[in-house]
Write a structure and sequence with these properties.
Immunoglobulin-like; single chain; 6-stranded mixed sheet; about 25% helix; alpha+beta
Length: about 375
């Protein structure tokens, strides 16, 4: 049953917008920054679209990729989907039509989400300050902030977050995402990091669904003897979408976690709360865009033992009592003897018939 739900979820992901959808005007060049590990979809409105990738070489040149990476797929309509991109896939993406005419060009900087700097405004935690690049004091490193996301709860106090990307500006030129600007230059400062900022919010509840979902996934989990924690993943959640967890009906907040008040659970900053680590059995629920998505129920010790017993029985060949086994062997032996006897009769009867026919002709 769980496999079926996972399959349905996989089919529903593009529809629900689990990925970030990026468009660029025809004939234009668009620069964007994104977080690594988060799926994006690059649009190309062209018949027979073909995609070409150019990655940065050690000498600083952009060179075409010699192969199509396994995490990149061209959709039937011509769009390119990049699943779980890595920082090394920062580069230039060309889309050409069937006549080999360039339709659109994307210059994408996949910034390393593992270096994410997380702050909460209500705790007085400050984002990264602007900084001059050591190579040239005219180069300014700063954070380009995306708009605030919607509040993750309505009717009661909640939280909202926004993502920020590392950019470099050399006046009077336009800002450029850090690694598109630096390319292969071996420069690193603690300032060159993407950011995630959180603050408290309060939103009024709106009638009707926020997005259409015709299923709710339920799942169960158990703690094994080897692990002291369990990591749960909220379907269709991402760092780009409002998500909130409840553990035994108690909402979890970034404020409690970042202040050090709550160590019983851990919201994963890298996934923006899509993943939750728990250290004791509890009923966990997750909500995305203020809509209930999934509930995770802990298996009791008795249920865990029964499940293990069922798996062991499924893996063990069935055994029969001695008397039943003897009867089965006797039946099989009888069937074999009857089969052999039938074959012998089939071979002998035609020969006897021929001899009788010859004797009749002599007379």
């Amino acid at each position: 049953m769980l496999t079926t739900w996972c399959l349905l979820l996989g089919l529903a992901v593009p529809v629900l917008g689990y990925h970030v959808s990026v468009t660029c005007p025809r004939g234009q060049v668009c620069q964007r920054a994104f977080l690594s590990g988060n799926t994006i979809l690059l649009h190309c409105n062209a018949t027979g679209a073909k995609w070409y990738h150019f990655f940065m070489h050690k000498n600083g040149d952009w060179i075409p990729s010699a192969y199509s990476p396994p995490n990149m797929h061209v959709m039937p309509e011509g769009n390119l989907i990049i699943t779980n991109p890595s920082p090394s896939q920062t580069g230039v993406y060309h889309c050409r039509d069937k006549n080999d005419t360039q339709v659109v060009q994307y210059e994408i900087d996949f910034q390393d989400v593992s270096n994410l700097h997380v702050t909460h405004k209500d705790l007085g935690q400050l984002p990264l300050e602007n900084e001059s690049l050591s190579l040239d004091h005219n180069q300014l490193i700063f954070t380009h902030w995306e708009p605030w996301q919607d509040c993750n709860k309505c009717g009661t106090p909640g939280e909202r977050k926004r993502v920020g990307y590392c950019y470099i500006q050399i006046p009077p030129e336009n800002p450029i995402p850090c690694w598109l600007h630096l390319a292969a230059v071996a420069v690193w400062t603690n300032r060159m990091r993407p950011e995630l900022q959180v603050e408290s919010c309060h939103a009024q509840c709106q009638p009707g669904p926020f997005f259409l979902v015709d299923f709710v996934m339920f799942d169960s989990y158990s703690f094994s003897e080897e692990t002291e924690s369990v990591q749960l993943t909220c379907p269709v959640a991402s760092i780009y979408r409002p998500v909130i967890w409840e553990v035994d009906e108690v909402p979890l907040t970034w404020k409690d976690q970042l202040s050090g008040k709550d160590f019983s659970t851990i919201l994963d900053p890298v996934t923006g709360g899509q993943q939750l680590k728990i250290f004791k059995p509890a009923v966990c629920k997750c909500f995305v865009n203020q809509q209930f998505i999934a509930r995770f129920n802990p298996l009791s010790n008795q249920a865990t033992l029964e499940a293990s017993k069922i798996r062991a029985e499924e893996d063990t060949p069935p055994t029969l009592p001695h008397s039943a086994l003897s009867r089965l062997l006797l039946t099989l032996l009888t069937c074999c003897m009857l089969t052999l006897l039938g074959l012998l009769l089939k071979l002998l009867c035609p020969l006897r018939g021929k001899r009788s026919y010859k004797m009749l002709l002599v007379r």
